[in-house]
Each structure stands twice: as structure tokens, then as C-alpha cells.
Hints:
Keywords: Glycoprotein, Glycosyltransferase, Transferase. This protein folds into two domains: 176 residues, no CATH class; 149 residues, Rossmann fold (3-Layer(aba) Sandwich). It is 27% helix and 23% strand. The strands form three sheets. Strands 1, 2, 6, 7, 8, 9, 10, 11 and 12 form a nine-stranded mixed sheet that branches. It has a five-stranded parallel sheet with strand order 14-13-15-16-17, with helices on both faces. With 392 residues, it is of the alpha/beta class. The protein contains eleven helices and 17 strands.
Amino acid sequence: MFRQLITNLDRASGGRLRRTADRAELPAYAGPVVSLCGGRAEAAGIEEFTVLQPVRAVRLDDERQRAFLARQTAVPNVDGAFQTEEAFRATLREVTFDPHSGAVWAADGALVLDSIKNAGRLKHVAATPIAPGTLAGAYSSIAGPISGNVFHWFIESLPRLHSLSSYPEPITLLMPDGLPADRRQQLAACLPPDVTVRFIPANRRVRVERFVLPSFLTTQWDFAYPPHNHLAHVRDRLIGAAGLPPRLVPGERIYILRDRARVRRVINEAAVVELLQTRGFRPYRLEELPFADQVRLFRDAEMVIAPHGAGLANLLFAPPVPVLEFASRAVTPVYFFLTLALGQEYRYLYPLELVDNEPLPGPSDGPLYSAARDLDLTVDLDALRAIVDEWS
């Protein structure tokens, strides 16, 4: 069945799956690697290791949520339950830091895997020169090669700053000097007390006397169930920085368009919009809205419907409202876990193109997963109507 699925997906993607599979992989980092996750203080020069959020089990009672959890393959689960990851903060002495990849090398030359999230990102670690000298004092960073993506910036990068809030001395945050102006403003809004920013060239590593490493809140692909206080730190700071008027009650029903996207477009989007407008929804293109307006839109939302995409990272600013995601032909549970963490009601619709009992590729399936995730999709209008009417 999987072999036939590969053939079908390659045909549906216009051969993109085959071309992706044939593309040469980037050379992977081949040096020594060490991990601190789980409190294994194996790296040289560890001065402090503090667990900020211990591992815990989360059990789901809702049958729809349990069915979705069981079908995805990114996060291990048993009988409707999954396990969160440990969040920690570690201080290391005599560190080398790469502002492009976010990689940290311990005093013995081993790359600390926790600094880049997981082994899948070793491909972003390149050989770059080291600046002369050593920076004295305590430093940290939330830099990474894909933090330019909306989801990775808001949900993966900025929440790590909260782990620095309780550090007992001032910290200088090292960030690449190519960080765009809007990201700099958002970063400034989320800085904890006693943390300042220093921008440095992205193409040169630096040696630092002490490095404070805030762990990623998940290492399992991008499917996070982040600690609520880390998310609240970013949400509250960015809403405050947006200078919004008081929240409107009742809020607005919103649909996020993807008609200008390169992938994952909704084939029958005109019919979807027509149906939703009869139920009080208004369509938006997030790329046309200034950031403050996006924050306001989601903060004031009553219901949110959207195809899978980075724009749903704005759910960070929404209250506990119903969320319906048009899923793809791959299991992409990013917003399933995010809505759980935010206390929002999550529903999903698989596309009409999905054959009953067809295997759903997961991230470990590589090019097959990427191709299936990015195919255009057709929404089941009857199912959509039923869900919205149930909510109403």
C-alpha cells in the first residue's frame, strides 16, 4: 500500500516527490556531539543545570483528539496519552558559539546537540572562522537558521527567553546582525529583565567565557506542547507591545486564505469562503496585515478556520476559542499540540483526496512526508458546514 501511495503522491505533486528524493543532501556535521537532555551532564565545563519544567504525562479524554493523536507518528503515544519533554537551563564555561546555526561547542570541542534542537539540524552547522579573543561575562542566544519562519520564531525561538527570566545575573543575548527590523522589535518586547542584546556577524563564531543555554521546549520535530508559562510570556509581551485597545466581545469569526501560497492551496476555496460567509466568517490574507493587526485579529477571534500553514502560529494570541484546521495528506500535528497547550478546542478536516485507511506519512518518511504535506487540497463542504453549525 505504501508503494502505491508513493506513486500516487508523486503523480499528484507533478514529480516533486521524485525530484526531492533525488536531490543531494547537505553534508552533515561529522564532529563529536554531546547531549544534556535528561540531566546528563556529559559536556565539559558545565557550571549549572536547572530543570525548569519536568517531564509529565498528558492524557486526552476527547475521542476526536485521541483519534488524531493515535494517527500521527511524530510524537509517541499510548492509549490517548503522550509525554512532554523536559525544559532546562544550563550554564557552560569556555564555549564557542555559532550565531548562524545557534550551535554551541563545549570546552572539549563537542557540539552540544541541545543548542540546535536535534540531530536533524546538524546539516545547518557549517565551518566558519572564529573571531579572535574571548567575550567576558555571561551570554546566551535563541538564534537558529530557520527562525525566520513565523512559526519557528513565535513558538520555538521567543519562548526560550522565558527560561532566562530567573537567572541571577545580567545576560547578553547574542543574535545575528541580519535579523530583520520587525524581528528585532519583537525580540526587544520579549526580553526578560537584565537581558540585553548584542548583534554580531552571522558568519563568524565567537568564544565566550560563560554561555547560558535555554533548552528548546521540544526536540521532536516541530510538534510542541510547550510549557504554558513560556507561551504566556511571549503572548503577553507582544500583545502589550502592539498597543491594542480593549478586546471586543463578541469577537470575529475568521478564515485565513492561502490563495497566494505556493503550496497547500485550497482547490475549492471560493466555495469554502462563500459557505463560511453565510455563517458570519470573514476571510483574511495575513500577509497583507501589519503585525499589530494580526495580533488584534487573533486576540479578538471568536472562531478560527484555516488550512495548515505558518499563519496559525498567531493562535498564540487567541483566547480559548474553537479552531478548525484543514489538514493535509500527511500527519502534521503542529497546531494540534499548540492548541492543547493553549486550551483551545481543536478540530480538523482531512482533504477529500485522502483515501479511507490510506497511510499518512510522518516526518520520518522524509521526501514522502514533505510532498504529501504540501499538496493542494479539496475541503469537504458538507463536513465543514456540520462543524461550523455545531459550534454555532
